[in-house]
Amino acid sequence: PDELGEGSHILHVVLDDDSEDLETPKSSHDLRVTLTNSENTEAEGILEVAVSTTMSGSDSQYLPEVYKPLYNDESLKNPLYEKFKQRQEEKTQES
Fold it and tell me: How does pLDDT run across 4-19, given as a tens digit for each residue?
């Protein structure tokens, strides 16, 4: 829709089960998604996203108190992010 052409938006995309080969986009890369409906394979639009690294919400000094329990829930933590944080800390200590 034309409304998505302006401003900032957050989109949640539900992937089919056969999307196992989709790789996680890396920072400083672009991701292009072709938008179709379930009845028609003709492209109805293209979503282009520039992927960038941002600070973790859990590390932000501006994280509202109400969200802190979510960020501290071990069942929701991404183990890959924890490894990333460890590598970043090691780099900082080496400098």
Answer: 677 777 766 666 666 6
3-state SS, residue 59: helix
Exposure letters 66-87 (e unless 16+ CB within 10 A, then b): eeeeeeeeeeeeeeeeeeeeee
Contact 22, 8 (CB under 8 A): no
What is the rounded CA–CA span in Å between residue 36 and residue 33? 10
- CB distance 14 to 35 below 8 Å: no
Which H/E stretch holds residue 33? Answer: strand 30-37
Structure tokens belonging to residue 83: 């490894």
Instruction: With H, G, I as helix, E, B as strand and everything else as coil, classify residue 94.
Output: helix
Q: Is the separation of the CB atoms in 31 and 49 below 8 Å?
A: yes
Instruction: Return the C-alpha torsion angle 75, 25, 13, 79, nearest 10.
Output: 0
pLDDT at 45: 78
